[in-house]
Amino acid sequence: MTNPRQIALIALRDIHAGAYADVALNKVLQKFSLPNLDRGLLTELVYGTVRRQRTLDAIINQLASKKSHQQPKDLRTILHLGLYQLRYQERIPPSAAVNTTVELAKNNGFAGLTGFVNGLLRQYIRLGEKSPEPLKLPENPVQRLGILHSFPDWIIEVWLEQLSWAETEQLCQWMNQTPTIDLRINPLRTTIEEVEEALQSVGILTRRIAHLPQALRLIGNTGAIQNIPGFSQGWWSVQDASAQLVGYLLNPQPGEVVIDACAAPGGKTTHIAELMQDQGKIWAGDRTASRLAKLKENARRLHLQSIHICTGDSRHLPQFYHTGDRVLLDAPCSGLGTLHRHPDARWRQTPESVVELSRLQSQLIANTSKFVKPGGILVYATCTLHPKENEDVISTFLASHPHWQIQPPRVDSPQLAYSTPQGWLKVWPHRENMDGFFMVRLRKTNNSE
Ligand SMILES: C[S@@+](CC[C@H](N)C(=O)[O-])C[C@H]1O[C@@H](n2cnc3c(N)ncnc32)[C@H](O)[C@@H]1O
């Protein structure tokens, strides 16, 4: 099969049945061999329709007599695909979007409904000719933003608690973009200049990122990551700029003992090893063995020797008590700072899952703080923007752990740019053009047991 729209329908069926969007997409990309352009279109259609689902459903609700959720499942997905192309894909002529969608309906058991599909899509085009916004939006301002930018109301509300309306809208728009790829250069194998040159020689454009000495942002489409020069030599890792800030905030030194309590697949563990010149001992703990296998593979590719694996639940592991000079807790979280990378995440997380995660995060910080020696450091980080998983976890921890205090970034450190008056760092993606992140450095006093 070579029709990217038909293949998109197959992947979307899987996603609507519960599969992760990236897993479902990779499955079809591996199964069907497509030319590069069609692979690009397939990826755009799958990720785009998942991301814009709420907006696309609102259009169906407006134009059809039956609500979107009452339509047969496949028909709803086919309409999503057609409407997505009409609304968001300027490169696809409207007539091609309509004809290919009608064809898709015909080939997937809806031969009797091709008139309905054709009519609905053409009605949308006609409305768009009359008004720049064919979609009728509700009066309620939260729902209005949620429908326009395709987010559940509760996420809009979480952002509105922290940002103005205008910034909330900017953040919504930012999260609907195709994500960029950043590299972190491994200074133990090469230099940033050498990587820049190697990439340039194969036509890959890059740019440096302020405050991050080993970071390069890739510009434009680069093809498969494994084919970028230097991958097999361990010259670099893929890691977003804001995730690179975490290693610098921890500031590990050669010869120290560092415990990375939620380490897999090892983006930050390998950064820590590089910052320590691969000298010292790093314990990489995680409860998921399959993810730790990826960490091992990454450490091997980067030629790092100082990393040791420990499979287990970091809410326990008493063998680590009072052994770490520095501990990193890069906690499992709702990922509200990386919604652009995971198009289905906004539909998977709920206010209830956030409460559940914040409970786990509190248990993890309470126990991993015991891993730290007196006078040592613990960095808590998440890639979410929800105060319940960030500020609240830290405030509650500090209130019940008098031997701990926040150690804000030094005035001469690059992280200062993201620092808040409370001493923790919050990276807002629409301001900094990088993934959303929260991180804080905590210090245990010398006289604690
Ligand atoms: C945000 S990810 C870590 C990403 C990693 N630090 C990196 O930079 O590549 C969170 C990790 O926590 C792990 N995890 C979740 N609950 C855990 C627990 N109770 N104990 C140990 N690891 C846990 C998950 O398996 C997941 O790999």
Automatic annotation (TrEMBL):
Single GO cellular component term: cytoplasm
Single biological process term from Gene Ontology: regulation of DNA-templated transcription
Binding site for S-adenosyl-L-methionine: 262-268, 286, 313, 330
Molecular-function GO term, any one: rRNA methyltransferase activity
Reaction(s) this enzyme catalyzes, per UniProt: cytidine(967) in 16S rRNA + S-adenosyl-L-methionine = 5-methylcytidine(967) in 16S rRNA + S-adenosyl-L-homocysteine + H(+)
Domain SAM-dependent MTase RsmB/NOP-type: 171-445
Keyword Metal-binding: no
Family: Belongs to the class I-like SAM-binding methyltransferase superfamily. RsmB/NOP family.
Protein name, as recorded: 16S rRNA (cytosine(967)-C(5))-methyltransferase
Organism for this UniProt entry: Chrysosporum bergii ANA360D
